[in-house]
Automatic annotation (TrEMBL):
<keyword id="KW-0547">Nucleotide-binding</keyword>
<dbReference type="Pfam" id="PF01030">
    <property type="entry name" value="Recep_L_domain"/>
</dbReference>
<feature type="domain" description="Furin-like cysteine-rich">
    <location>
        <begin position="200"/>
        <end position="295"/>
    </location>
</feature>
<dbReference type="InterPro" id="IPR009030">
    <property type="entry name" value="Growth_fac_rcpt_cys_sf"/>
</dbReference>
<keyword id="KW-0675">Receptor</keyword>
<keyword id="KW-0472">Membrane</keyword>
<dbReference type="InterPro" id="IPR036941">
    <property type="entry name" value="Rcpt_L-dom_sf"/>
</dbReference>
<keyword id="KW-0808">Transferase</keyword>
<keyword id="KW-0732">Signal</keyword>
<dbReference type="Pfam" id="PF00757">
    <property type="entry name" value="Furin-like"/>
</dbReference>
<feature type="domain" description="Receptor L-domain">
    <location>
        <begin position="62"/>
        <end position="183"/>
    </location>
</feature>
<keyword id="KW-0325">Glycoprotein</keyword>
<protein>
    <recommendedName>
        <fullName>receptor protein-tyrosine kinase</fullName>
        <ecNumber>2.7.10.1</ecNumber>
    </recommendedName>
</protein>
<dbReference type="GO" id="GO:0004714">
    <property type="term" value="F:transmembrane receptor protein tyrosine kinase activity"/>
</dbReference>
<dbReference type="InterPro" id="IPR006212">
    <property type="entry name" value="Furin_repeat"/>
</dbReference>
<keyword id="KW-0829">Tyrosine-protein kinase</keyword>
<keyword id="KW-0812">Transmembrane</keyword>
Length: 297
């Protein structure tokens, strides 16, 4: 009897082992919200470039929500090739403006940034901007000067306030392949182009999967860089987004990027905060705020 029991245990063990050998073990990480504070120095820099880069890395590493402005400047890989700005890839929401300038990098990997709320905007000669991309390379043939080539913002769906500004980006491509009206709602002429706003000699094209209504829409050459285009054809009475083009099809003012119906519980994303299933302009006094969530004690 003992021999049979031992055989049965061994047989069971081998069966389980054989089963597990065909199972893929997937490590799933839970989504973590990390809020960090932005800056308000414009193109300024304190200390040397190494100190400045390290300050940016410490401030924004693993950050998902930037409270304030996201200013990424003075990162020059021609000076230090070890500069790595992949720490930007976790950012999803910026409540202020985004400034990208005085850079010598090929890409800006803000691949998860969905919303630039632009509560504060960047002022250039009296115009207010939610996104500014400028001075990203010197024009010329210096092989060390690679220049910014791709913005890589495939998740960006809305800049809530202000326009978009480009200037002195002689190597930048995939700017004229973006439907900016879809990103900047309720704003006629959403983009302003300064001198050398982007390269007009780009040879790379969008992936075939990026075609929208017969037009190529992309942030880069990869098929993962397709632009997600939201309809901007709303009734004139709508202050922002809409779920239908008729007069009663407007999204609630507390919604960002889109909605499924007219109420503050139909938002695809909250513009400010989420409390329960509703989008609200502020959290209740007794709630703790984390990113865009109101958490009750």
């Amino acid at each position: 009897m003992e021999d049979f029991s031992g055989f049965l245990c061994l047989f069971t063990f081998l069966c389980v082992l054989n089963f597990l050998s065909g199972v893929e073990i997937v490590n799933v990480e839970s989504e973590v919200t990390k809020e960090c504070y932005g800056t308000h120095v414009g193109f300024g820099m304190s200390g040397n470039q190494d100190d400045h880069y390290e300050s940016l890395r410490r401030r924004f590493k693993d950050c998902t929500h930037v409270e304030g402005n996201l200013e990424i400047t003075h990162v020059d890989k021609a000076i230090n090739s070890s500069y790595d700005i992949s720490f930007l890839s976790s950012i999803k929401v910026v409540t202020g403006y985004v400034l990208l300038g005085l850079l010598e990098v090929q890409t800006i990997p803000l691949i998860n940034l969905r919303l630039i709320r632009a509560d504060s905007t960047y002022n250039i000669m009296g115009e207010e901007y939610g996104l500014v991309v400028a001075l990203t390379s010197e024009a010329g043939n210096d092989p060390k000067r690679v220049g910014l080539r791709e913005l890589q913002l495939p998740s960006l769906l809305e800049i809530s306030k202000g326009k978009v500004f480009f200037a002195q980006n002689p190597h930048l491509c995939y700017i004229d392949t973006i439907d900016w009206g879809s990103i900047v709602p309720d704003n006629e002429g959403p983009v302003k182009y300064g001198e050398l706003a982007y390269s007009e000699n780009c040879e790379k094209k969008c992936d075939t999967e990026c075609e929208v209504d017969g037009v190529n829409r992309c942030w880069g050459e990869s098929r993962f860089m397709c632009q997600t285009v939201r309809s901007s054809h709303c009734h004139s009475s709508c202050p922002g987004r809409c779920y239908d083009s008729y007069i009663l099809g407007c999204c609630h003012p507390e919604c960002a990027i889109g909605c499924y119906g007219p109420s503050d519980s139909d938002c695809e994303m909250c513009k400010y905060f989420q409390f329960g299933d509703r989008c609200v302009p502020s959290c209740p006094a007794n709630a703790r705020r984390l990113g865009q969530e109101c958490i009750m004690p």
